[in-house]
Structure formats: C-alpha cells, structure tokens
Amino acid sequence: MKRGFLSFLLFLMILAGPVIALNFGGPNVMDWVNTRMAMFTAQEQPAGLEETAAEPALEDPFQWLNDRPALREVFIPDAFTSARYVSVEKIVPFDDLLQSGETSPGNDQLALYAAARAPAQLIEYCADVVATIGSACDVIYAEARENRDGDWVMNGRLSYIPLADLGTPQTVENGQLLTAKVALPFTGDLAPANEAQTRIALLQQAQAACDVLRAELGNCVLARVSFDVEILWITDLEVLPAGTNPQRLDATAEFAVYADPVQIDSAAFADLVEATLDPI
Amino acid sequence: MSNDRRQEDFAERLSRISKERGGAGGSAGPERDMSDFDYNVERGSHPIRNGIIWVFVLAGLGAGGFYGWQALPDDLKAMVSGGQAEVTAGDPQDIAETDTMSNAGPIFASPAVLYAGDEPLTLTVVATQVSLPTQNTATGAIIPIARNDDCTLRSPAEGEKVMGVRIENALLPGPLHTFSDAQMVGQVLQNVEAVTQDGADIATDMALAGTKTSLDVFLTDTSAPLYLVLQNMGDGIVWNLHAAADVSIAHVALIGADFSGVANLPADTSVEALLVSDFLPPYQNGADDAPRDCMIRPWRTPQSDWIGSLKSEAGSLTDRNLMLSYSKGYAAYDRWYTQTLGVNARANTVTARDAAHVLLGPVPETPLSYRPLTGQDIQMVETDHLMTGDFETRIAAVAALQDDLLRAAVGGDISALDPAAVERNSQ
C-alpha cells in the first residue's frame, strides 16, 4: 500500500514538472532550447577555419559588464550613460537668454529659442560636477518650458564619468543591483541656496556617503543627484535678511551597489544609506 | 508387494488442507481474487479511492496540456493543429501591422485602388496611359485658394450628390513644398528636441517642413452633379481629379490638417478649403468628442479588422483608448458633417488610412484616360512659403530657411545645441 502511494506521488511530480517549468517558474523554455542549439551548432566549425591561427583576443576589462546592460549603464567607468547623471534646473527670464543687443523674437518663437539655448545654459553646471565627482561631464538631455511667472525653466541631465573608483562589483557572485534614493540633509530651516558652492558641497556630501558605502559593501556608484529649484514666496522672503537668494535647492541622491542579496536586501540597503547620510 | 503407504498419506494431507481452506474435497469452489501483496488476503474493491486517484491524474494531464498548449508560440500551435495562426489570440504585442492593414485601417498602395466594392481593384482596370507623378514632376501654375475662415461650407444645391474620400495619408509623391511660418517653427523645434533629448545628429537627422503628397481620384458617377468632399488628417495632398466623360463636378470642399490642393479641376467648378488648425486645438486622444460648432477633424470610425481593434480586443489599453478616440471623434465629426452637408459622413464616401488611387462611382467599362500632373495648374491653399521646381532645389530652399531660423534661435553657432563635454583637467 505504501509503495503504491509513493509511486503515485512520483508520478504526480513528473507530471507537474513541465507544468511548473512552462508556466510558473519563469524560465523561457524555448529560449533555453534555442540557446542550447546555438551552442551545439557553434561547436561545429568548418574544418578549414581551424587551420588559421586565431589572433589573441584583446581582453576587455569590462567584459563582465557587456552581458549585463542594466549594470553596464551604471558601472561602466569610462563612458557617459543615461543611468548616471546629475539633474539640474535653471530658471531665468527670457531676456537673460538673449545676447547683448539681441532683439527678442515674436511670442511664437520663444519656445524654440529657449529650447535651442538650453544646452549652452546647462553645460555651465558641469563645472560643479568636474570639481567634485566627475573626470568629465556632458549634457545628455535638455528641455525648456515656460512657467506661470513667464520665466523659462530649463531642466538638464549631466552625465558624468566618475572620478572615484567604483569598487569591485565584478567579484560579487549572483549579485543584485540595489538602489536607494534619499534627500540630502542640510542644517537650518532654509533649504540650501541655488549657488555653485552649495551645489559643490552637496555633491561632495553625496560622494562621501558613497565612499562609506563602498568601504562597507565593496562597490558604490553615485547614480543620480537631483537639484530641483524651489522659489521662495515673497512672504517668506520678507522675514529673511535682504539679499537672500530666493532660489533654494531640494537635493536628492540615488546610490547604487551590486551586492549579494543574501548579504543585504533592498530594505536593508535603504536603511544603510539613510544611516550613512544621517548618522545621528 | 510393498507395504509403503506414503503416497496415500500425502493424498490425505492434501485433502485435509483443501478442506481447511474451504474447498470441498476435490470439487471446484468459487474462484477467489487474491491480493498481490498480502498472501491469502482477498483483494478488496475501492471505487472511491481509485476514483480520486483518477481524478487527480486526469486533472494533472488536463492542466499540463492546457498550460503547455498556451505556452507554445502561435505559429507552432498553428503548425501542430494544421490551421492558421489566430491574430486575435495571445499578447497584443504579437499582433503586427501588415502591408495592407494598419492599426488605423487599410492601406491601398499603388496599384491598388480604394473604392466602394469588396473585390480587389487595380489601377489598370480604372485607367490607361498611366504616368504617375514623381517628386520632380513639373507642374503648371500654382493658383492660390483662400481658406474659409468662418467654417461656412457652401451647402449642396438641390440635385447635387455629395461624395467623399476620407483618409489620413496619400501615397504618391507630391510635386511641391508649402508650409506656414508656424509649421516651420514647429518643425525646427522638433529637430532641436531630437538633438537635445534623443541624441539625433545635427548634420544628418534634421527633418524638413512642407512635404506634400498626391493622390488620384477617378470619378465615374454620372447620376448627378457631384459635390466632392476631400478629407485627410496627415500631410497636405494634391488631389488629382480624373473625371470620366459626362461626369459633372459642381463643387470641391477640401478639409484637412495641412495645406492641400486640387489639380485637373474643371474651369467652372468652385472650390473652398477648411484647415483643421484654424478651428480646433492640436490633436489629443479623446479630446474631440465634445460638441463644437466647427468640428472638422476628419475622423474615421474604427472597423473590426483594424489592427488597433484586434489589439484592443486582445487587451491593449493604449489601443483601446485610441479606438475610443476614433469612435468619439467620428461621432462628433459626423454630427458636424450631417448638419453642414445634409448627409451623414458615411454617405457615398470611401475611407482608408492610406491610399494612392481612389474610385468614386462604378468601375468603368473601359479604363479612363489618365491625366498626369505634369504641366497641370494646381489650385493650392495659400500659406507663407511655396517651393516648386525639382526636388533637390525645393529641399535646398526649405533647408536654407530652416537653417536661418535655427541659427537665430541658437544664437549663432549651431554646434551649441550639442556642446563639447567638459573635462576635469580643462577647468
């Protein structure tokens, strides 16, 4: 009786295997079959080809990233990518976009002029980036729009090549890309002013946190720093000292690490980032 | 003689054992079903247990078969079943547009002819001595048509028959470029954003404004003077009319999103034009169903064989919204059309997304003589810029205009659109 029951269980397990594989386990069976077929056919090289001595292939130090596009965008150390940038914002009256003596175009061309001049306006912020976290910086995205005050808001993404060593993500086995975004803390009641020295200090603060994370986890990339500009209300300015910059920065940073999920998961990484930036 | 009784004794023991087991001496009793596992225990009947086991087995087979079949690619399923792949089944992403059917309706590329019949019709049946236009076709004079700024189309007169063509794009090349200042600013802004947001190349990826297309309209309906309503949503079209003998064209109304024109127009035929952007805001999904006094965006009502409809049925939310937009837009357009022209928007009207040749009326018994655009005057909706001549000359003129505007917008040097990267050691 017991033997019969065991046989029946074994039969059900054999039956359930393909069902799980096809529907619930996630693996793409056809891809798996195709991959195996490709490997098999690749091994069957024409005999003539074997007679030619193969040139030694140049070793790509970042070869391990080439099969991992999402990781590559974050960790490739010598290229501008869309996954690693500083987001900046500049708000200016339209007349500030014009050169000395240049007449303003008609209203139907304001958006065109602002959009066309946005990259030149935004690349000035690259000075902050190469002074702190980057060995090179480039504008990879720029847009312009008119706000309700009639000023022009220019948003840009400054991709950068990291100055700091990113660590050794290639030594992590079965790793997982973890990201955590936090607001960069500041002292006092007033958010930092939108000025070069403030932005530089914030970038340094973010990079210092990334250095600590790298020491702890073996690697870290400052994937994104965002500087969103807030304009103080006149009523707020009235109680502040004269000459206070009405443009304040809402700064956030996003950190990325490639880590063993057994060692640390997303929630634990987010906690670690919070603790690193605000250790008290 | 022997006194050995061993054989008799053995026979007696056998007989006794047989009796103890219920046998009746040497007589054959009823046969008993014995268990395979427990010796001398009678096999029991377990219909409930066995039934449950079989239910599990069959359920496993059924579930495995069902999910396994669902997991197979459509083409493999079609091959196994010997049928054709069902385009309505599976993921909406698997439902692809074809050369003749798009998300938004059929495509009639030359030499196919769009007409009211169901059977395929080719150009050779409709026209003879065909000389299709090219980008370099030299036309006659360009005669300006002033736009109707009041949305007051002439009403069809008593006895006139309203016939229409409603498409998005024409598929024959146009012999001219024409565009407004606003269109040029919009095109240059698009080009700028392509560079600054999508990484397009300033030198090679700049699109030009003012491209026009053309389309043949063959007219064979002689039942009444015709009131033609030529409608499209895409780039402007030069509608080239080919009227059979005895066809009378009383009036032509052009309704479109761009500047269009008409060629081979009889001398006594009146023409007027409505430009969608004069009366409606820019196109937005779902924004055209509100009642308006001048709802002239020429929507077409979705059909069940459109790829967009099939994707919508398969669960695509984007296509469902798009089809809903077409439906509501058509309802609003039909309301305006009916109020203005006295017939609904389907009446005597052929529709497709794209077409190269259209037939309004019965299929001719003998092909019409084709009237090429070459040397023909074109009545064209007037706007700020008009370029004629060969294609290279025209696009050079458009590019020069756009280049001047772009330089002014950038502030001089166009390379400022994509400034050089900043190096740390260059600071």
Per-chain topology:
The complex is a heterodimer of chains A (280) and B (427).
Chain A: H1 2-24, H2 29-43, H3 63-66, H4 69-75, E1 85-92, H5 110-122, H6 126-130, E2 134-146, E3 152-162, E4 176-183, H7 196-217, E5 221-231, H8 234-238, E6 247-259, H9 266-277
Parallel strand pairs in A: 1-5
Antiparallel strand pairs in A: 1-3, 2-3, 4-6, 5-6
Helix pairs in contact in A: 7-9
Chain B: H1 6-20, H2 47-71, H3 74-81, E1 101-102, E2 105-114, H4 123-126, E3 127-128, E4 142-145, E5 161-167, E6 169-170, E7 172-179, H5 181-198, E8 211-219, E9 226-232, E10 237-243, E11 249-256, E12 261-263, E13 270-275, H6 307-313, H7 317-341, E14 349-351, E15 354-360, E16 368-369, E17 378-381, E18 385-387, H8 391-410, E19 422-423
Parallel strand pairs in B: 2-15, 3-16, 4-17, 5-9, 5-14, 6-15, 8-10, 8-15, 9-11, 10-12, 11-13
Antiparallel strand pairs in B: 1-2, 7-8, 7-18, 12-17
Helix pairs in contact in B: 6-7
- Class based on secondary structure composition and strand pairing of chain B: alpha/beta
Cα separation of the termini of chain B = 135 Å
Task: Please describe the biggest sheet of chain B, giving its number of strands, its sense, and whether it closes into a barrel.
Answer: 11 strands, mixed
Number of strands of chain B: 19
Number of strands of chain A: 6
Note down, in words, how this protein is organized:
The complex is a heterodimer of chains A (280) and B (427). With 280 residues, chain A is an alpha+beta fold. Chain A contains nine helices and six strands, in the order ααααβααβββαβαβα. The termini of chain A are far apart. Chain B has one domain. Chain B is 29% helix and 22% strand. Chain B has helices spanning 6-20, 47-71, 74-81, 123-126, 181-198, 307-313, 317-341, 391-410, and strands at residues 101-102, 105-114, 127-128, 142-145, 161-167, 169-170, 172-179, 211-219, 226-232, 237-243, 249-256, 261-263, 270-275, 349-351, 354-360, 368-369, 378-381, 385-387, 422-423. In chain B, a hairpin with a 2-residue loop joins strand 1 and strand 2. The longest helix of chain B has 25 residues, at 47-71. Chain B is elongated. Chain B starts with 5 loop residues before the first helix and ends with a strand. Chains A and B meet through helix 1, helix 5, helix 6 and strand 2 of A and helix 2, helix 5, helix 8 and strand 19 of B.
